[in-house]
Request: fold
Amino acid sequence: MKGIYKQLLRWLGVVATASALAMGVARTDWLAALENVYYDYWHVVAGVRYEPQNTAFITVDDATLLAYKDDPLAFWAPYWGQAFDALSKAGVKVIGLDFIYTVSAEAWLRKLDLPDSNISREYDTPFRAALSRGNVVLITHLVDLPDGKLELLLPPDDQRLLLPGGNNDLGIANLYPDPDKHVRGFYPVMIADPAFPGLAFNMQMALRAANQDPGLAEWRIAGETIKRELKRMPIGYAGPPGTIPTVSMARLLAPNALDDPHVKALRGKVAIIAANNAGTSDRHFTPYSRGANAEQMAGGEIHANIVETILTGRYPKPLTLGQEIAYVGLFVAFAGWLFLRFSVGGGAALMPVLLAAVAPPAYVAFQADSVLPVAEVQSALIAAFLLTFVLRLTGEERERARMRQIFGRYVADDVVNVLLAEDRKLDLAGEMKMVTVLFSDIRGFTTLSEKLTAHEVVEMLNAYFTRVAEPILAQGGTLDKYIGDAVMAVFGSTVSYPDHARRGLKAALGMQKEAEGFKEWMLKRFPDRELGEFRIGVGLYTGEALVGNIGAPKRLEFATIGDTVNAASRLEGITKEMQCVIAAAETTVKAAGEGVRTGKIETRQVKGRAEPIRIYEILGVDG
Reply:
């Protein structure tokens, strides 16, 4: 339970920390920019999202300019009047003119002081008549002055005075893109003071179409409340450029305009007259301006999309703070569980899959006008992976230090590394394991030690143990203990090698070789002592044994105990009777597999065991 509780705390810590980090980073400009890229590509992939029902784009296109190329645009007031008249007769609800003049044609003509001419008084008559009907919204512009101040650029007085609604027939046409120059949002109110014409051009048209009073403090349209305050709102684009129904202004100026099916289809709509020709600069990047077929959208069509957004209420809605926490936390909780469950390599392999899995739900939600974070969740997943990596790294280092402290005297460093790499860590509290136990001692040690001083005995044993420990450690064995002149080693106790029996036999053969070499050391060190030939005996037995930390609380040692240990000790003693160096039980030979070369084979009754043991003299191991 303690282990489960610890794992739970680690998991909760990773989830909380990664989520908090991601939500903090999501508020930075660079991650917001990446989030916008995903958002834009959802538009590109989706294409046309819905069919616009409320607006139409009347374009002053190349065909219109060519048809009236002899008339400068500044003197198009009669044509605007004619177009307004045709639109009004076609049943259009509201007309928006996305062109601004600071002086009227008549005012400019009066400056010429032409003799005997009424042109300076009558030229704008059709336009003035259309303005007085009350279904036209003209644009204004907020202009940044060199001193940093804003000034409202208004239509000429002789036009504004004809507007029945006064300031309520004017709208600010400025579009405000994001830092990457893409227009994704708009301000329905740009100047909150009702004394000024501070509503956006698109907002004025939407209010007129929804029969709302522009003078109110707030408006309720399509289930959404818009207050008279400076607040940016998202645009729910209907589709890429050309999605808004488009009619060339040349059709409106044709003699039979009212019989044109395209003109008839404008009934009940908001018609926005704006430039969309080769020479216009009124084009902007939108979310659809991504990919190989990216193109800019005319300002008039953007205003039409905004009007559609207001009248339909199809605003792309981001998550609330609570929803954001829950959504990010859900992904991180699942990913964190996986990262803690799998190795670092496994987590790294899963990472591309998890990062990619964030996108589909975001795209599906986008189709329903909801905006789910993608880059934020991906950054949270990366943070969760890095946090688990750090936890594993620091935890592994602590575990490594603890393991080295416990096993450093018994096993080689590479065995500790293998032990740490195992998914199933060693249970130091005690567990039954299948192992191979090796016992070895020096033949005639009592007689030998009587001929040496105490210091010489210690010197000799240290030199001998240093030599025979090498093959044991080389085969991944654990030096369990030294008992006088005897060595006990265990294979498969720390690291669960499946070939522990074969490793034990190889270690025994290595000890035999080292003992042969040690004879020369003995002769050189004690040339005149008549110590006799140096010999050892090695016994091995394979079976189940209890492995764990054993001893008093102040003196614990990692040890192996049980009948298997006793049997190995007995076999070492039998080597004297069999007159061989290495004796192994049949269980060890069989577990070692093919390639074990044996000599004498005997079956003997061993003290402490009811059943006799079949014993093999070991001569070598192939490979």
